[in-house]
Design brief:
The chain has 29 helices and 33 strands. By secondary structure, the protein is an alpha+beta fold. A hairpin with an 8-residue loop joins strand 20 and strand 21. The protein is globular and about 100 Å long.
Length: 961
């Protein structure tokens, strides 16, 4: 954005924000005299590797990017991709009279502002400009009321950054050595992964229990209507005064936890028969008033949870869409722990309640939601529509995901200022005596809403898909105690207890927040990390831990127990917030964490690293949370002595019957017996298998399958053995070369090898099939000009090749059946440019809720993908064509839309080189270049062009390589 020559109040002001979109919106509000430019995120950070560390630093400082021996001094470097932007900011600052740092009003935003000040070194007045919504009035107020940089917030953020660097750079290498290369550990990500693993362990240990009960349909005998039904359905609750067992009465191993009546199928059927002719009566009717208050306005985590439940958005997609809404002035700042609304927002919401729903829905006094989560960062507002008058979703002019998320925020905000929903809840108990003398009692619950209040605008979703939402009514007949009822049907129902549900993104976010682990603003990136690292994958919306995560968590729990302890991690968060408030000093705290120095006296009040949050006895506090090898020494000591860590033991998990699951460097596998023993068995396990599905029976199936090489027989021409193998890129056939055959050097001989067709499998492929496959490429014939046409099988399927001209074939079988005439006919057609004819979809998933277009799964050049015709999203490694659910498909599309179109980077080349590469692409151009070289040799005055031609040839040759 070019600076303006106009001035404001006699000077020119430079305003720096994080993003170009935010800069564009704010520029429109500030007008002339202001230069608004983006830093494009962080301009300076800890180095990503030793290569970025200045040469004056050596040893551990180069590895960590932090000088732990010099009060944990961080080594900051300007990011390589930000150097040009920093130069631009310095040039703009040189022409400005004032500098306004307008980054976000949270710890990270404060840190970015501080880094900008440190790098730009302004010689003009510097102001910190803060706002939590991008509207004209808010921006004007921010300019008129700047403040100073908050150094405490900067120190707190810097301490977090150093802590996370030390944790990641010290613990991750342990995982590389003992589990697998390229793994990562993190202060919050490792704890989040442990939560998911522990839930899966609970599912694996779970044993289902069967229980039975009865359901009765009872009639009043009169004609009913919508307000007074004639029948009600009730469930058996007691027999002879003893409560009937339900799912909640069983433990996770299928045992009863209390003295209740456990009914099996035989008893249930016998009781149903005995009740067939029983006369029933109403024994009691209990009515209570029902009242439900509105939900608080959104904060970061509740927005992520509701967007997941109602819109199918992942946490990352939610924050990406919310970021765009904020930067374009539609909502307030989306990273907030607060549920508070400003007076202006309350007035706007109340005005819309009256306008859209009527005065009957408006409470006398404004509702306030002052409760914030523990250690909330700043006094931000809740997430709400921006401005002093809320735009309705229809007025906002939005579309797609932005419209849907804005509508959700708008509804929640308006509903928060509406009256309670009121009504009545009723419980009816019905009893009768069975023919065998047993006394049975049934119970039915109902709910009627007499005034919907805020529910007219908004009803919160639920994590459990079977849960009943708040606005659901259940009307019962109007009956009184003593009324006679007849049974229309007594049905027998069998049930089985279910294992605890896996976490979804929404429920994991909720769990982390309730445990006070990490900062809500970072949850989206944490979820993204554990998914991207392969620690967790998705089945539908459920988060499933991989076998790899079991090995990682096992190592961390056993040898770094304190670092993944939930209470310890929460206490660390408390300590960091104490530093932000100036109640503790960062350097003593870091020293205690890293070196384990001191007795806690110098670590700042209440530092919880190695001692209790209140500074209690260290030995007592840590005993319960430490695993083997974890002790009061600091992090450095823990990662130095790795001798006690048995890599094989860490990655081994018993399945049963002598079978062990192991996590190897190339993936999980099951094994029985010792390697090298005669009875040794081993079989790979697919990486997307849920751990609780690896039963002894399934492991036996895997071990029973043939493994290794399948010998197909000898090639009758060469006598060499032909084998079928399962390779890294799929099944293939190859020949076994005789011993002594050179495998390297000029005389090396490579064995003939060919991939199996998609229609073939290792257990059905024959020697004849293998020999046919290895005979490819097949010469189909020669055209009239003498060019040979061959049929070949390539990475992207079967095709014909004539010189440099290739044409796709429709099926693999054509490789052996296509004739010369058929090939010539294909070459007689114009070559298709761009996309070939569309392939039929692999699966149909339904209609996308955003685009309202049909979503299908297709097979593309780079694998399967979902598309609605407008947006394409590649399936992740953990998604399969057969098992992907519609919801997962919609989620992938939503994430892709949130990212926006991919930006192509322009590659700049020198004109001479560009021309040289272009010339080298055709035979004619090559001849011209050669001609120029010959002319240069015969004409002394043209030596320079000869050098250019030689350079062009070298460039072309290298590009071919």
């Amino acid at each position: 954005m070019s600076p303006t020559s106009e001035t404001a109040h006699g000077g020119r002001r430079l305003v720096i924000v994080e993003s170009p979109a935010k800069a564009k919106t704010i520029k429109g509000y500030l007008g002339p005299g202001y230069i608004v430019e983006a830093s494009v995120g962080h301009i300076r950070d800890l180095p990503n590797g030793a290569a970025e560390v200045p040469d004056k630093y050596t040893g551990e400082v180069r590895r960590l990017g932090v000088d732990v021996d010099n009060d944990f001094q961080p080594i900051y470097v300007v990011n390589a991709d930000k150097k040009a932007q920093v130069r631009k900011l310095k040039e703009l600052l040189a022409e400005s009279d004032e500098l306004f740092l307008a980054t976000d009003e949270d710890r990270e935003g404060e840190a970015i502002a501080w880094h900008l000040q440190e790098v730009l070194k302004p010689k003009v007045p510097v102001h910190r400009m803060v706002f939590h919504e991008i509207t004209k009035d808010a921006i004007k107020a921010a300019v008129d009321n700047p403040r100073e940089l908050n150094k405490r917030m900067v120190d707190a953020q810097e301490t977090r950054r150093i802590l996370d660097r030390l944790y990641g750079y010290e613990v991750s290498p342990v995982l590389w050595k003992k589990v697998m290369p390229k793994l990562s550990a993190g202060r919050v990500q490792s704890v989040a992964t442990r939560l998911v693993v522990e839930r899966e362990r609970e599912r694996m240990a779970f044993r289902s229990a069967e229980y039975w009960d009865l359901t009765g349909t009872f009639s009043t005998g009169r004609i009913g209507d919508a307000s007074d039904p004639s029948t009600l359905v009730a469930r058996l609750t007691t027999v002879d005064g003893r409560r009937v067992a339900q799912g909640r009465d069983f433990s996770s191993v299928g045992k009863l936890k209390s003295d209740v009546l456990h009914i099996d199928e035989a008893n249930a059927r016998a009781l149903a028969s005995a009740l067939a002719d029983t006369s029933f009566a109403v024994r009691s009717v209990e009515s209570k008033p029902y009242r439900r208050s509105p939900y608080a306005p959104f904060r970061t985590t509740t927005l992520q949870q509701e967007a997941s439940r109602k819109l199918g958005f992942g946490a990352k997609a939610t924050m990406q869409v919310a970021q765009k809404l904020y930067e374009n002035g539609f909502i307030t700042y989306m990273r907030t722990d607060s549920t508070t609304l400003s007076d202006t927002a309350i007035s706007a919401a109340r005005a819309q309640v009256t306008q859209l729903y009527g005065a009957d829905y408006l409470p006398e006094k404004p509702r306030t939601y002052a409760k914030k989560v523990k250690n909330a960062q700043e006094a931000h507002e809740a997430i709400r529509p921006s401005g002093d008058r809320f735009r309705t979703p229809a007025e906002a002019g939005l579309s797609g995901d932005q419209f849907r998320l804005y509508e959700l925020i708008w509804k929640r905000t308006v509903a928060s200022q509406m009256k309670d929903a009121v009504g009545n809840s009723v419980t009816v108990k019905i009893g009768g005596q069975a023919s065998d003398g047993r006394n049975a009692e049934f119970s039915a619950s109902g709910k009627t809403i007499t005034f919907h209040g805020f529910m007219k605008a908004y009803v919160e979703g639920a994590d459990d898909p079977n849960a009943e939402l708040d606005d659901r009514e259940r009307r019962l007949p109007q009956v009184e105690q003593g009324d006679a009822l007849s049974s229309e049907e007594i049905s027998v129902d069998g049930h089985a207890t279910k294992p605890p549900a896996r976490y979804t993104e929404a429920s994991l976010v909720k769990e982390l927040e309730e445990r006070e682990i990490g900062r809500p603003s970072t949850y989206a990136s944490i979820l993204g990390t554990i998914l991207d690292r392969g620690y967790v994958f998705k089945k539908g919306t459920a988060l499933v831990p991989s076998f790899l995560s079991f090995a990682v968590v096992n190592l961390l729990e056993t040898h770094f127990g304190r670092l993944v302890d939930y209470d310890f991690t929460a206490r660390m968060e408390d300590d960091l917030d104490r530093i932000a408030r100036g109640e503790a000093q960062p350097i003593p705290w870091l020293r205690r964490f890293y070196f384990g120095e001191g007795d806690g006296k110098n670590a700042g009040a209440g530092v919880g690293v190695g001692v209790g949050a209140g500074g209690g006895d260290a030995a007592t506090t840590t005993t319960a949370v430490n695993g083997q090898g974890d002790h009061l020494a600091g992090l450095k000591a823990l990662v130095t002595d790795l001798g006690a860590i048995d890599a094989r033991e860490i990655s081994s998990f018993p399945v049963g019957d002598g079978i062990v699951l192991r996590v190897g460097r190339y993936g999980p596998y099951v094994e029985r017996g010792e390697k090298g023993a005669e009875d040794h068995q081993r079989a790979d396990v697919q990486e997307d298998l849920a751990p609780d599905e690896l039963t002894v029976e399934y492991a036996e199936e895997l071990l029973a399958k043939p493994s290794g090489d399948f010998e197909l027989g000898a090639d009758p021409e060469t006598g060499r053995q032909i084998v079928a193998k399962d390779g890294r890129y799929g099944p293939y056939v190859t020949e076994i070369l005789p011993e002594g055959t050179p495998k390297t050097g000029k005389n090396a001989i490579k064995p003939r090898t060919a991939s199996l067709f998609k229609s073939m499998s290792l257990d059905t492929v024959t020697l004849a099939d293998a020999l046919k496959l290895m005979s490819l490429p097949r010469v189909v014939g020669v055209d009239a000009e003498g060019f040979e046409i061959t049929a070949q099988n390539g990475r992207y399927g079967p095709y014909l090749k004539k010189g440099t001209d290739s044409r796709s074939l429709e099926t693999e079988d054509q490789l052996f059946s296509i004739t010369l005439d058929e090939s010539l006919a294909i070459y007689a057609q114009p070559k298709q440019r761009g996309r070939a004819a569309a392939k039929p979809p692999l699966r149909e998933l339904g209609t996308d809720p955003v685009s309202e277009r049909p979503v299908v799964v297709k097979d593309g050049r780079f694998g399967a993908y979902v598309t609605d015709g407008e947006t394409n999203a590649t399936l992740r490694t953990d998604d399969s064509v057969e098992e992907i659910t519609p919801e997962r498909g919609y989620e992938l599309l939503a994430e892709k839309r949130a990212k926006g179109p991919s930006k192509k980077k322009a590659v700049k080349k020198a004109p001479a080189k560009k021309a040289a590469v272009k010339k080298a692409t055709t035979a004619t151009a090559a001849k011209k270049t050669a001609a120029k070289k010959t002319a240069a040799k015969t004409t002394t005055a043209k030596k320079a062009p000869a050098k250019k031609a030689t350079a062009a040839k070298a460039t072309a040759a290298s590009s071919d390589d």
